[in-house]
Amino acid sequence: MSGIAIVGGGPTGLNAAIYTARADRRTLVFALLGTFLFLDGFDFGAGAIFATLSDDEGREAVLSAIGPFWDGNEVWLVVFGGALFAAFPSVYAGLFSRHYLLMFGILGALILRGLAPEMYEQRHDARWHRWWGRSFVAGSVLAPFLLGAFAGNWLVGSPRSLTLVGVVTGVAVTALTVVSGAAFLRLKVREALPETVTEIGVAAVAAYLLAVVATLGVLATRLPAGVDALLSPPVIALVAASVGLGAGYAVALRRGASLVALAAAGGLTYGLIAVVGVLMYPRIDPATGATVGEAVVSTLPLNLMSIGSALLLPLVVAYFAVLYSAFSGPITAEEAY
């Protein structure tokens, strides 16, 4: 690790501070990815649940619930990409060149998910609604699935777009978005949606936990450390916490504590990202074997990134605080997308 003196097994003094700062950038990048997956995740989940609704009132309620938020939530994907490029440009270049098909797929799904609700409201005949409703569902399901596939391939360093670990991770991420979506819709929409939305959320959290187990099983055969990596105390603790959060989510959702259920879904989301980060550490690009210290930019641009983050992130957070405050509470019957 260039520029870091190792004494007694670890960096000391000024070099220790530099090492910590570099590790913090990695944590920030993963935290931004988790924020996008949670905030836009409940939009994706709402889109998947949209497919289970047959009445116009329920479908309009879903669109009204996510209408003020979905485009703003996608900002976090841009922030994640910008932070990855600023802190680890070689990783950004390598990941996006190896998985450009997945990147185009994700962008295409996001475009479809954003375009479909707008088109859905332009006309009011059954055939038009059926076409754009299906497009909305397709974009809402494909985006998290492909994002999960991207994360799984990143974790194991696979250069291919279609892999077993990518598929099982994609299924896990898609199920997780339905978990968030059910809690969000129960929080924002009450009378207009059937009780089956609650059961969908409970089934989704069970499916998510099963998908996580399947993913860990596949990773045991793909990670260099094998089963030993999965039996490390941090991974065991995170998996146990996920099981507890999943159970708490199901209980809260069935009791009508939608905000608690949504918070539990957020914990599951950040827990999943934490598992990926722990399994990958100290590498940031397993495909090349590059570690955080090897891939991070030099000290000067790193410091400039810190200054930029300190100035811009509070503004982004303030914007979202105002947005969610302005549109807090359940939607009314008069609101439309």
TrEMBL record:
Keywords, sorted A to Z: Cell membrane, Membrane, Transmembrane, Transmembrane helix
SUPFAM superfamilies, per database record: FAD/NAD(P)-binding domain
Gene Ontology process terms (BP): aerobic electron transport chain
Pfam annotation, one family: Cyt_bd_oxida_II
Transmembrane feature ranges: 28-54, 75-93, 136-156, 162-185, 197-219, 231-252, 259-284, 304-327
Compartments in which it is found: Cell membrane
Name the UniProt record assigns to this protein: Cytochrome bd quinol oxidase subunit 2 apoprotein
Organism the protein comes from: Halorubrum californiense DSM 19288
